[in-house]
Design goal:
Layout: E1 16-18, E2 21-23, E3 27-31, H1 36-42, E4 47-51, H2 54-62, E5 69-71, H3 74-82, E6 99-103, H4 115-124, E7 128-131, H5 134-145, H6 149-152, E8 156-159, H7 163-169, E9 174-178, H8 179-182
Parallel strand pairs: 3-4, 3-5, 7-8, 7-9
Antiparallel strand pairs: 1-2, 6-9
Length: 185
């Protein structure tokens, strides 16, 4: 590992100040995407933020890449703590992230207003994409709970790419992912 284990004290030291401008060291952050505008507005520090899919960030940290702060879902943080890659007791829950269902621009919006309608929409879809990240784990469990996991199997396009890219390109008819990952595409 290049730097200290994640979880040390988080502080923003001012090194020097000239003309009301603070000169600060760079802060390297791994984040799944939703926090960029908030962090940029909240500090004058140079912030190096790497926005990648959660699964990719988890692999990077597991491989020893160093950062000052990792913004990841609880399940991934707990796994990295268990592996000794993030210091125990150093985490805090920051936010919740909702998932959404996406279709290609111009396609009819499926009825997902009830459990039965959602089940029907998923079964009617020719192909269905979801990520291998936290929303994907939720989606896989949801398919089981709906009793359609086996039927959906041949239609599933599991991806490390943004799901909306698969929808936009026609590689999948519908897809599910965190809304913050769907909206930019």
């Amino acid at each position: 590992m290049e730097g200290p284990p994640l979880g040390g004290p988080l502080f923003f030291p001012f090194v020097a100040q000239t003309d009301d401008e603070a000169i600060m060291p760079a802060i390297k952050i791994f984040s799944g995407g939703a926090m960029r505008p908030l962090m940029t507005a909240a500090t004058g520090a140079t912030i190096e933020i790497e926005f990648r899919l959660t699964s990719v960030l988890k692999k990077a940290i597991g491989a020893g890449e160093w950062c000052d702060l990792a913004v990841l879902p609880r399940r991934e943080l707990d796994d990295l703590i268990e592996k000794g890659m993030i210091a125990s007791g150093s985490t805090v829950d920051l936010a919740r992230s909702a998932i959404g269902l996406a279709v290609r621009a111009g396609a009819p919006k499926p009825d997902i207003g009830s459990v039965n309608a959602l089940r029907g929409a998923l079964l009617q879809a020719r192909s269905f994409a979801y990520s291998d990240g936290p929303s994907g784990a939720y989606t896989a469990a949801l398919l089981e709970k709906l009793g359609i996991a086996e039927q959906m199997g041949p239609k599933i396009r599991l991806t490390s790419r943004p799901v909306a890219e698969l929808i936009a390109s026609g590689e999948a008819e519908i897809g599910v992912q965190q809304i913050v990952a769907l909206l930019p595409v």
